[in-house]
Design brief:
One of its GO terms (cellular component) is cytosol. Belongs to the carbohydrate kinase PfkB family. It comes from Pycnococcus provasolii. The chain is α/β, with parallel strands linked by helices. It has a single domain, classed as UDP-N-acetylmuramoyl-L-alanine:D-glutamate ligase (3-Layer(aba) Sandwich), CATH 3.40.1190.20. Helix content is 33%, strand content 18%. The chain contains 14 helices and 16 strands. Helix 5 runs parallel beside helix 6 and helix 7 packs across helix 10. The radius of gyration is 21 Å and the shape is globular. About 8% of the residues have low confidence.
């Protein structure tokens, strides 16, 4: 089922930000927006990047960086560019200021032909800016964002652009209540628009639980990293419903119950594949438990990214679009049957090849959304996303996502394992 992805996309994705616009870039922006596969509603930011030789600062420390760099960024802009490069016709909706940073924030998007006609310029707000500190030895990063105009982004901006799109992508760098309104609008349309929420940055105890709950119930896909998965679980499920908090022995209990019944998708020796799958589960037990619980309770497909460990996807037995799935289903004493799980390992590029991890998550989300919007089956969309996230680490900057042409030769290096019994074992431990 990679065939939809293998077809040459109409807009011929660009190889670099400096490339000339594609031949059809002269079309009106209104026409571009009307034909989008993916609509991204989110943030636009200018990143100020520092690489201190002594490593990342601890609280109270001052460290020196010999130079600094400026790059366009923001999770929304990064994901829109990643979706476009991965082959989807993409429209971006956001808010920037009327200042020197505004054009820089949108520069890669406009250079490569992403529709930005829905970006609003606010004379009373500053374009968002981020301070990004990157370790030159490990590639790890610390980020603080001054959110500025992102706080003024409004869901009404997307109303015209969602009429024919296949996927709405959201993050948490714009007001959550606007994400909620955008998702409600997408669900109200006559054609089925899939909704994908990347719940990043992670919610805090101050985040309204009612809004988080509503967004989970309005999302077809949830993408989170380990910290975000656990934070969401703790806020919306732990101590609120029947699910118990994840015990320390949960992963071992699951593994004992699962036995040997797991099916590697691409012919790897079963026991080797199973050992890898379960060792990954043991390492990331709490995050995987959180993803399992969120998928089961809220009826959305939950993808949890695990850094160098790849990613796992939990597909619920009952989707929240299903007739009869009510808003209070997640509070039932006996939730829906256990979701199914698959896991993808990243391709091996060598630790010394990793330059910068700051854009990996957004490259993953954009490529995942693009692949799904083009009709690619879930396991192949996961393969494409994991490959994109890995290859984004080979270059600097938050918008280092690979093109479709760069991804294709490396997809067969990503192993996807579809588990046939782990979900049942998970259910038995609750």
């Amino acid at each position: 089922m990679l065939s939809p992805y293998l077809e040459v996309p109409a807009h011929e994705t660009m190889a670099t930000a400096a490339s000339a616009p594609p031949p059809d870039a002269a079309r009106s922006q209104a026409e571009e927006a009307a034909t989008a596969d993916v609509v991204v509603f989110g943030s636009a930011v200018v990143d100020l990047v520092f690489r201190p030789d002594s490593g990342l600062p601890a609280p109270g420390m001052t460290v020196l960086s010999r130079t600094y760099e400026t790059h366009p960024g923001g999770k929304g802009a990064n994901q829109a560019l990643a979706a476009h490069r991965a082959g989807a016709q993409t429209s971006f909706y956001a808010a920037v200021g009327r200042d020197a940073f505004a054009d820089l924030a949108l520069s890669n998007l406009t250079a490569e032909g992403v529709d930005v006609s829905g970006v609003r310029r606010d004379a009373h707000a500053q374009t968002a800016c981020a301070c990004v500190c990157v370790s030159p030895t490990t590639g790890e990063n610390m980020i603080v964002v001054g959110n500025g105009a992102n706080e003024t982004a409004r869901a009404t901006q997307i109303h015209g652009g969602c009429t024919t799109c296949k996927m709405l992508v959201m993050q948490s760098e714009v007001p959550l209540e606007e994400n909620e309104r955008a998702a409600m609008h997408a669900r109200s349309l006559a054609q089925e628009v899939q909704t994908l929420w990347n719940a990043a940055p992670a919610p805090t105890p101050q985040t309204p639980v009612a809004t988080l709950t509503s967004l989970l119930l309005l999302s077809d896909h949830l993408v989170v990293n380990e910290h975000e998965a656990v934070a969401l679980y703790n806020l919306v499920l732990r101590n609120r419903v029947h699910d118990a908090p994840p015990p320390e022995s949960w992963a071992n209990d699951v593994l004992e119950r699962a036995g040997d019944d797991a099916a590697p998708e691409n012919g790897a020796p079963p026991r080797l594949a199973i050992a890898k799958l379960y060792s990954q589960l043991a390492v990331n037990g709490q995050a995987e438990f959180a993803a399992f619980s969120l998928a089961r309770r809220f009826g959305c497909i939950v993808c949890v990214t695990l850094g160098s460990g790849g990613a796992s996807v939990y597909t619920p037995a009952v989707r929240n679009r299903t007739e009869g799935f009510h808003r209070d289903c997640y509070e039932a004493a006996r939730p829906a049957p256990a979701p199914k799980r698959m896991h993808a390992d990243p391709p091996n590029v060598g630790r010394n090849a990793i330059v910068d991890t700051v854009g990996a998550g957004d490259a993953f989300v954009g490529a995942y959304a693009a692949a799904l919007s083009l009709g690619t089956r879930g396991s192949d969309a996961l393969r494409i996303a994991v490959c994109a996230g890995t290859r984004a680490c080979l270059a600097r900057g938050a918008q280092a996502s690979p093109t479709r042409e760069d991804l294709l030769p490396h997809l067969d290096k990503v192993r996807v394992i579809v588990d046939t019994k782990l979900a049942e074992a998970c259910a038995e431990t609750l």
